[in-house]
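protien #1 (seq + structre)
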Amino acid sequence: MTTAVRDNLPVDVTSLVGRQGEVSQVKKMLSSSRLATLTGVGGVGKTRLALQVARQLRRAFPDGVWLAPLAEVGETDLLALTVMEAVGLRSPTQEPVAALTDYLRDKQLLLVLDNCEHLVEGCAELVARLLPACPRLRILATSREPMGIDGESVFMVPTLPVPDLTTTATPESMALFAERAAAAVPGFLVTENNRQAVASLCRHLDGLPLAIELAAVRMRVLSVEELLARQGDRYALLTRGNRSAQPRHRSLRAAVDWSFELCSDTERLLWARLSAFAGGCDLEAAQHVCAGEGLPAEEVLEAIAGLLDKSILLREETAGRVRYRMLETIRQYGRERLLESREEEVLHRRHRDYYLEQAEQLQVQWFGPGQTELLVRMRAEHANLRAALEFCLSEPAEMRTGLHMAGALWLYWMLSGLQKEGEYWLRRTLASQPEPSSERAIGLWVYAYLLIVGGEKDAALAMIGECEQIARRLDDAAMHAHAIYLSGFAHLLRVEGLDQSVPLLNEGIRLEQALGEPNPHVIVARVILSLASCMSGQVQAALTIAEECAAELKASGEQYCLSWCLTYLGLAEWRQHDGRQATQYLREAIRCKQPFNDLLGIGCAMEYLAWSTMDLGDPERAARLLGVSSVLWEPLGPLGPLLAGFELLQDWHGAVEEQIKVALGEVAYQQAFHSGAVLPVDKGISYALGEETSGHSESPPAECVAFTQREKQVIQMLAEGLSNRCIAERLVIARRTAECHVANILTKLGFTTRSQVASWAASRPSA
């Protein structure tokens, strides 16, 4: 079910010990500065502190608190794309930084950029572009070094206080050790007998949280005194070997080195090999990539269990699937060991081969049952797919395989709303392989498909033209067929191309069917043909094609293409002026799309549903549905790509909107539109499906709510986009008082965001 999510922060599996003072300081810093950067050595807890601050600030940011993890991002060009994904933006029509700027311009939002140090210049450039253009945006970053830009406030995260051996106080470093040791050995307590040893150990580790946690987990096999003795030996050796290193770097290195030495041979080997993964992996991937000399496949699970016991690996379970990941400091250590073993290239190639196989299997398995599970699994591997493609581009001998992989992921780019990222990888891989080849033809075809969805007809047709040339040169009948039907899709973008679209699609389908084998391209082309027929006035043909496709897809268990068949059936029935049948098809389409969280598809179906509702003589509900669809379009760009790119659909939208305004009047239209636009996404979808609860009112929200005079003033200021601080300054009241007024208004209206209040206020003569 699609819901209105306001953050993507991970669930904290362990408590944050101490840090109350640091949390308060960072929150205060963010209240006066729009960019706060937490710096400090590896293992000091920058990420944990940032996440704790973000969790406590959720209520202060009505448009959400969003985490963009950057540790696995290898290229500066992927920064904006990564942030887009983090905030839920899926615009295929704009350059990423421009899309981000437009999307965040009016948002009161906190963005957490985690692990910036390896891309610090790129992060600084991105932040320097976003902050001036987005006045209500605040950014909390973690990095081993500051960004060094104007307006940045820097907070050096300290290590935890260490004990004074002359007192009996229990500072935070000892409290952390005690809590983690008790998790490893239930019943463990700091007592008079072991206090001195625990205190000495925490001092040896310089109060560094990660080092303390790694030491505590060894309590399963060693006493505190034994821990202290072994850690002391390791620390002394390290100090003699590298006197220039900072003490805290030596402490962390000592703790990690020591943890590595206490692992079995198979655990050490697995630790090093798992560092080839980005963003973690599941058991199947670990066995496939890491098994080999010194580590039989049947021993991988036991080695994983050992690394889990030692807190080297972290276990995460989502949707019934278990994944394993490392903290970035631990992963980087593993990569050093992998380099030393001279296995790095072999492991990265094996890693690439595994994810190339996953991409190829997605194409084969997609057109059948189990699609949502397939997509969820692939989305979880996003960082690994990036790493595999980056490996291909770093090795001349692998670049052709990289182009093949980027093309094989065409369904993934489309279904995940990652059209711009798909373009990024195809642009790079195509540039690396300019000579005609089957891989280049496929890459051009996929790139053209992504451009069509973004509304770029001319660029798409140019690529299709080169694709056809290569197909003729290589005598590739399949690629020729693909290119013909895709050119028909491209011609749908402009009104003057409609006459060419249907013949090209029909010819492409004939060629696809002549290949004489099961071919998912036939289904894709026929679904597009149903839209083309509808748009070109051949409505009965559109109904026939879509009905036949829908029957076949239902029989096979396929849901995604089925949802588009139902959407176009609804559109065709609207053109036939059968609003009731159109409504039935479109509601069924929305239900099919919900498991995929297909906002693009739901937005299209919602738009057509509004048109059908107007046809049924209910302009107020139609206006409200247009308001709901506008919320779905927002992360996709103005009117959404499948309307913005298709001129005729834009014309139809404008005509229906004008009909509604004539029927209601401008003021009533705006009221109804905004009453839909302020609904949370899940409630808006329920409304479209006719599933309103008995308490739902079709009148604009809060019709009879009474406000105090002060609340009315605050509502007007919210409509102006003022922050709580500005409201407080204008009304000469405490900021906390302003926050209370805003909270009361949200409660009375039943809203969750300030922007909803602003939209509601704008739709009314007065609040």
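ok now protien #2
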Amino acid sequence: MDSTPDADAELRRRVRQQEVVAELGQRALETDDLDRLLHEAVVAVSDVLETKYANLLELLPEGNELFLRDGVGWREGLVGSATVPADTNSQAGITLRTEAPIVVDDLRTEKRLTEPALLDDHDVTSGISVTVGPADDPWGVLGAYASERREFAEGDATFLRSVANILASALENERTRRELEEIYGRISDAFFALDEEWNFTYLNERAHELINPEGRTLVGTRVWNEFPEAMGQQFKLKYERAMYDQETVSFEEYYPEPLDSWFEVRAYPSETGLSVYFRDVTERKERERELELFRTLLDYTTDSVLVIDPQSGRFLDANETACRTLGYDREELLELTVPDMDHVFDDIADWRSHVEDVKTENSMTITGEHVRKDGTTFPAEVNVAHVELDREYMIAIARDITEHRERERELEASNERLEQFAYAASHDLQEPLRMVSSYLQLIERRYGDAFDEDGEEFLAYAIDGAERMRGMIDGLLEYSRVETRGDPFEPVDLDRLLEDVLDDLSLQLEETDAEVETEPLPRVQGDASQLRQVFQNLLSNALEYSGDEPPRIHVETTRRERGRWEISVIDEGIGIDPADQDRVFDVFQRLHSREEYDGTGIGLALCERIVERHNGEIWVESEPGEGSTFSITLPAADESA
């Protein structure tokens, strides 16, 4: 389909906006002239949004007025002198109090606002504005205004927000730089002086703190005697070169134990000795090593790794796998935000809500649809972790699960066909089996007296086989209905459920002189009817396979991680050979003959299917003659789990 002129224009407009954001970002990294950067940003906003006016308003310390720090289009003399109120009746004041861009299509019809003289005097009709700086401590407001009625698009708001983020970062960097300069002005470097014989002539207090914490008397002693390890490092070579060439040297070097520190050193020679200024840079070196290792891991992992700004949702870093998978160059990718890439999040506000959840949990796994550069999508499983370094980073590790999803769909379709077959087969077999069973019973009633001993035995075998077949078909039908005929999950009191199961088994318990001991059981989330089947089967098996001694059964429970409970049914019976333990959960698998133990061979398979429906696990631990422990995991009912 051919693109329309309007669509082409909008695309060019969006590309231009991205180019300007990239240019301003680069300027912010390169320049140390903050005022010039602010002015260039305001000019760019007016130019790209095609508005007559643009301004950068700085919130004054009192908090009730905004100062026109920079602007385009305003009458001469206003920039650098004019102020506007910061109350909630003005667009600028409202902007300060919200994280979202404020768009006013027509100030003349907007009843909520009483615009200041700055806008009224210039016949401003429409405007769009965003905060500069964090919402809880804003620096000011960046805005664009038109004298004719304008409808600003969502892309315009995104562009303005991106420019504001660049300015906020530049302002924060400037503030940090000034603070550091003030700190460095108050705290001098460590310093010592050496004469031409390499003897200490002076050390300041900071030097003693860094290299002489024991408080030795160093003045008058030879540096190589007091610090012999320096001779094996760069220190001796660099100091001698400075003295020989009579030129300043700067270097970084590690001093081993007992100092175990990295130092940044500047040595200034003179005809009578050497003046050495130094500082401990161990922490910086450690961070650099960590970042180098991190970068190596990023580039060699087969998963996509993304570093994300938790507030703006912008990508701060990405490895090669992420760029290749998403189809972007790294520079292109770093211009995007998470909502641009992941359909799970509606907008930045939705992303920030997710960030708070991640901070609470420390890490989280989500699945969503990621969008490639060419517009195609693919399913991804993303592990998100909140990491704090010099500032907040959010680390996301994404894995393309397209093949996994396809296998899941194939498995679901296969399971559905299997369920349909099992249901149809078991259902359709019911009627002929009922006919066979009924006629066998009729023959027994009418003609039983006419059979000899062999005939009676044969007839009994036939009737017993038909009944066992009925039990197997009923079990198969029940097995096929676990997913389709189960009840919705709800909180289930396992103590009460176990009491009901023991009531149902009371006759068998009395006949076998069995003892059942149980710990207090938890509440779980599940299908009470199906869970009752599970416990009935496990306890029935424990009674059935108890051996010659009266059954002794214990029911225990353990709290597991991630909100799950483990419940175990422990018996002292005949046990199971380890080689056969996986088979016991297969349909119609029997480990003993029917003459030894009765049963259809479907009970444990049914238990496994029910537990899997509850997203749990079932397993057995056993040795022949040592009893068996059947354990299951189930989801806890309480939210705190």
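Residues 402-447 form the longest helix (46 residues).
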